Amino acid sequence: xxxxxxxLLRKARDAKRGGHDAWxxxxxxxxxxxxxxxxxADWLAEIDxxxxxxxxxxxxxxxxxxxxxxxxxxxxx
Length: 77
What we know:
The chain is an all-alpha fold and 77 residues long. The chain has one domain. It has helices at residues 3-24, 28-37, 41-46, 51-75. It is built from 4 helices and no strands.
């Protein structure tokens, strides 16, 4: 697996399990990508990002793995 995928999957799992507190300790870039994975527009708004801004901040390489990570998390439920 791709390093970006594994990193984002780990961070998204942490936030999904630990909620806002687990998400809050991540770097800004991680917060943005994880909020997109978890479909948490409210978390993005909290750090003053819109969805388009979050996509731009994440960049193409990270945005490309977001749907895969979201699917993986959904399968784990």
